[in-house]
Every structure is written in C-alpha cells, then in structure tokens.
Amino acid sequence: MQHQLESLASCGDAASLRCAISKLCAEFGKVTRVDILTMSEADTRRALCFLRLESDAQERQLMTSLGVSRFGNDVLLIVDLAIGSVRL
Predict the structure, then answer these.
(1) Are 75 and 59 in contact (CB under 8 A)?
(2) What pLDDT digit, counting tens, does each position of 42-60 carry?
C-alpha cells in the first residue's frame, strides 16, 4: 500500500488530491471529511491529509493496511509532493 500513498504525489491540486484519497480509501469505507495542509521546507514539499471515514472500525482497517496513524481523532496521511506540482 505504500506505493499507493506515493501515487498521491502526482496530484496537481487539492481537489484531485481529495479525489485520489477517496479512491484510495474506498475499499475501507466512505471518506466523510478530508482536510489538507501543505508545508514546504528547502527542497521538500508535503501535504498533511487529515481524514475521517464513516466508522472507527473502517479507520482502524485503513490505518493497519496503510501503516499510518492518528493525529487526534483523524487518520493522518503524509504525502510527499513533487516540487511545484500541487496548487492549493
């Protein structure tokens, strides 16, 4: 599944990143919320994606499968972005 997270890096804007996250998570349940924050430092650009699914059980399955964790009540996906590829 790590490869699938890496595939999110090619998204060209926030809308396409949200859509790609929804598709990635679809096998676990419907994504009910996605908040995206971007950060840049030197030659690194990342998107912090905070999301929620319909149930805690679905979120636990997603976290186990993707090897990600929670930040507060949200599932946190950290996406390394190609420099200059995402317009938010």
Answers:
(1) yes
(2) 877 788 999 999 999 999 9
